Amino acid sequence: xxxxxxxxxxxxxxxxxxxxxxxxxxxxxxxxxxxxxxxxxxxxxxxxxxxxxxxxxxxxxxxxxxxxxxxxxxxxxxxxxxxxxxxxxxxxxxxxxxxxxxxxxxxxxxxxxxxxxxxxxxxxxxxxxxxxxxxxxxxxxxxxxxxxxxxxxxxxxxxxxxxxxxxxxxxxxxxxxxxxxxxxxxxxxxxxxxxxxxxxxxxxxxxxxxxxxxxxxxxxxxxxxxxxxx
Length: 230
Prior knowledge:
Glycosyltransferase_2; Glycosyltransferase family 2 protein; 16% strand; 8 helices; seven-stranded mixed beta sheet; alpha/beta; 230 residues
């Protein structure tokens, strides 16, 4: 890219009023729009995010993927489209400033999608549960042998060329969002890579790993998605 790319950020958020201002406050200044998809929060997530400088869209139907799709719809409606979109969680477990490392391979013309890999970076003790670590290993191993995709993580912190993202025709509305993107990107022949990212204990309780129901539900959906696109 000859000119500085236009970068927008999407943050799906459900009850993240304590963490979302920290996340927004540490996003690098080169970002144009920070779009927070308020996923039917029962706290002040939307108000706090707006006060911190984000654009807030509301999605009443719960679901990680559904929130991401709603934010994408807002971006589609803008007169000037972005070059790159970065996805980032709202719980402050990621380090927003590492966004520079995620977009660099795209800006340099070396990749069209970049996954922030927690497996390659430094993880704070207790930041990922044993089921999360095992689930990531199982999913990436299955993807390797079933689809030939080479990933080490399903990390939510990722960057992708906006036009390529639209071409993937994303449809998953909940836990299968990240793996759907990776499988479709691989099958579509997108150039992708991973960069190490650090990971810390999130603020608040995880909606997935924080409950047995969440762990089982996410695990089932991830494995189902792998077979769906096999």
